[in-house]
Amino acid sequence: MAKKFNEIHEVTFYECDINGTMTLPMLLNSVIKTSEAQSEQLQVSTDQLQKLGITWVITQHEMNIHRLPKVGQLIKITTQGTSYNKYFCYREFWVQDKETGEQLAHIFSTFVLMDLTTRKMISVPDDLLVAFESEKIKRIHRGPHFHQPTDGAFHQPYRVRFSDIDSNKHVNNAKYLDWMVDCLDYDKLTQYLPQKVWIKFEKEISYGHTIDSFFSQRLLEEHDQFWTDHEIFVEGNRCASANILWRKRK
Amino acid sequence: MAKKFNEIHEVTFYECDINGTMTLPMLLNSVIKTSEAQSEQLQVSTDQLQKLGITWVITQHEMNIHRLPKVGQLIKITTQGTSYNKYFCYREFWVQDKETGEQLAHIFSTFVLMDLTTRKMISVPDDLLVAFESEKIKRIHRGPHFHQPTDGAFHQPYRVRFSDIDSNKHVNNAKYLDWMVDCLDYDKLTQYLPQKVWIKFEKEISYGHTIDSFFSQRLLEEHDQFWTDHEIFVEGNRCASANILWRKRK
């Protein structure tokens, strides 16, 4: 059984939007912060990996959101490096209300290791994950089937800003979700809540790039729900895809 | 002597930029969070004010930065509502390293009260500030003289995004600094650090606006320092001005 680790996080007003609920990028940022804290505690921090010439790269998140955390709420973020196979490491996050224990979100994330010199994926050294007590498995988690935006989808350009890039000198993954969600209109973003978010990352984006964010909507029979399908391109290359299920606020 | 209040804040990676130091908008956000916590403790929270039909509006910050907080650092943010006169309330913030007590930044801010219906400034009711034990003064703090960008200054447009607006339904003040600083080039932003920041806010900015961010540079005799002068406009109306003194990283 993989080691669990948790942190308490106070949701700040600047992690929330006009709805007073945490934005999706900030929810991702806060859980990643917790996984970094676990890695540090187990002395396998990002800094220590970089000294070995390797770093973590996130390739996919599958988020199930029961209730978005609210401004001022104390949330308990629990994580474990659940399992791994030759190339993929699977990490889970549980977000709960600190007081009541109510489950707010569950996130299943896929990480790979990249060689910092070749920028290529490497196979996972067994000894690296000993401290996490992750289970070694053979199975590869295939994840969801992604829907692409339709032809003629709405699209909008975003110039990568200085504040979008992190200490790895590329755009922080969470930012992609910001560019995706911002394409929806004001009414949708105030009247609907994200319920499921599937996002996969294919290419790094750097300072100075201009990205094109595409999205279209997929209606469901349930009139109070719909999916949005998203893709982000830089110069004709797809950098990320996402599907988000929205439901009407009650 | 006005009541002091403090909070410990852990600087997260997503509050920092490529330099591993806290961004100016996030530094402002974190201190404002502390002032809101004090107001809540003294039962004069923003929510309670809004029930009285009024709200706080920040008109100016004067920041002196000795050393920007770093990712992972625990900082102690101390604040007090120092003094007030008929229309203006002056609040100070001190940012220190939690362990060593080293002074990292001092911020002197001016707040006014706005009537939520008329959107006009109102005079400060004495009884509102009793709990803060702020000193009533006659003097008006004039603040610095602002330099304007020169004719032909560099300018860049920014579309207001959904995530830029806060629960007051307008752009969060701190965001203005993001649009200002982003105009500088990559080399400047990695080789220089902000030392002084003066910013004044003149008009609200809303969702759907496109702002124009102007800036020019003012050289000093000391070759390792320079000023940048900034203004932000919406449809020909100035919404904010700022001057920032930068010094070369050591």
Automatic annotation (TrEMBL), chains A, B:
Matches recorded under Pfam families: Acyl-ACP_TE (PF01643), Acyl-ACP_TE_C (PF20791)
Similarity annotation: Belongs to the acyl-ACP thioesterase family.
Domain Acyl-ACP thioesterase N-terminal hotdog: 3-129
Name this protein carries in UniProt: Acyl-[acyl-carrier-protein] thioesterase
Top-level taxonomic group: Bacteria
Matching CDD domains: 4HBT
Keyword Transit peptide belongs to the record: yes
Molecular function (Gene Ontology), one example: fatty acyl-[ACP] hydrolase activity
Keywords from the UniProt entry: Fatty acid biosynthesis, Fatty acid metabolism, Hydrolase, Lipid biosynthesis, Lipid metabolism, Transit peptide
Residues annotated as domain Acyl-ACP thioesterase-like C-terminal: 151-248
The keyword Nucleotide-binding appears for this protein: no
